[in-house]
């Protein structure tokens, strides 16, 4: 009897070990490329993972800081990331294989998941630098952004329309988003650039530590850019969000979008999408930039790539498509 009991325990232990191994084998790990830790992309990625890790079966989600939208496209291409947050224009440019992705060629397998917050190309300048418009940036110390960032790509498009290169600035810094607010406060740069949803922590930090003003991005070259590039729209930063900036500021903008590739398993995408949309009201409370998100817009507005089949399946189940 004792021998039978021991044999049963041993068999049960082996069975338990086998079940555990099967469970571990089924568990999938996904990584979302985000942005700098002071930016909205990072909060968005962390928030998505929060709901996935709580609600999706056998999926573990991680959302590390990254170099930004262009870097996230490249991360999707290389397989470093399963998902990536990027500007809507980056999704389009990757799919079409145009600058800054012309060397890599068309990314035929990029897929849309959903769009997120509206974003605005933002220039914040020290008041004592006397920068009142786009033309006043010439000859100044400007952070053009780190390579791979959204602000760098958009600024370079604007510079092309203006006929400028980096020599137009007395200093063309390549600081990461988390570094530029302190650089502005320490008088190491005259202006910082960002393509970001508002309100934003880095802009709040800068405007509370130094007398700084938002710079309107307008003019004939901007009108020409808007006419030529359908992924950009006129945008506005509301007045009163930041100290010393009581009036609205005109600029250009677009949407932040969550992208993936056709290689990512449809069930993983389905579970991620389901985890977010079944908790959309909680998601909206995790950052002020998310408060106006509407599912019917998130599944369409700003998406230039085809929907991933896993996302499409969920949207059809909900009757949204």
Automatic annotation (TrEMBL):
Residues 1-25 form the signal peptide. It comes from the Bacteria. SUPFAM superfamilies: Periplasmic binding protein-like II. CDD domains: PBP2_TAXI_TRAP_like_3 (cd13568). Keywords: Signal. The keyword Signal applies. The keyword Signal applies. PANTHER family: SLL1037 PROTEIN. This is TRAP-type transport system protein, periplasmic component. The lineage of its organism: Bacteria, Pseudomonadati, Pseudomonadota, Gammaproteobacteria, Pseudomonadales.
């Amino acid at each position: 009897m004792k021998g039978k009991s021991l044999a049963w325990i041993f068999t049960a232990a082996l069975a338990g070990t086998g079940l555990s191994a099967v469970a571990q084998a089924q568990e999938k790990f996904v990584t979302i490329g985000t942005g700098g830790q002071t930016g909205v992309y990072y909060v968005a990625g962390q928030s998505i993972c929060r709901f996935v890790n709580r609600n999706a079966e056998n999926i573990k989600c991680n959302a590390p800081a990254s170099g930004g939208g262009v870097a996230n496209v490249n991360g999707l291409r290389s397989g470093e990331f399963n998902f990536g947050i990027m500007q809507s224009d980056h999704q389009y440019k990757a799919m079409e294989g145009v600058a800054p992705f012309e060397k890599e060629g068309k990314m035929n397998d990029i897929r849309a998941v959903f769009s997120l917050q509206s974003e605005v190309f933002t220039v914040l300048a020290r008041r004592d630098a006397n920068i009142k418009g786009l033309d006043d940036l010439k000859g100044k110390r400007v952070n053009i952004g780190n390579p791979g960032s959204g602000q760098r790509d958009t600024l370079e498009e604007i510079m092309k329309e203006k006929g400028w290169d980096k020599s137009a600035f007395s200093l063309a810094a390549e600081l990461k988003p988390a570094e530029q607010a302190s650089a502005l406060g320490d008088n190491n740069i005259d202006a910082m650039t960002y393509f970001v949803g508002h309100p934003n922590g880095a802009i709040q930090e800068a405007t509370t530590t130094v007398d700084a003003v938002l710079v309107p991005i307008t003019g004939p070259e901007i009108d020409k850019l808007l006419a030529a590039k359908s992924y950009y729209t006129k945008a506005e930063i509301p007045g009163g969000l930041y100290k010393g900036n009581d009036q609205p500021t005109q600029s250009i903008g677009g949407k932040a979008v969550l992208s993936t590739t056709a290689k990512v398993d449809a069930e993983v995408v389905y579970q991620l999408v389901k985890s977010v949309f079944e908790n959309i009201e909680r998601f909206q409370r995790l950052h002020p930039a998310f408060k106006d998100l509407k599912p019917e817009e998130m599944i369409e507005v700003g998406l230039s790539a085809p929907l991933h089949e896993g996302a499409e399946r969920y949207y059809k189940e909900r009757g949204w498509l």
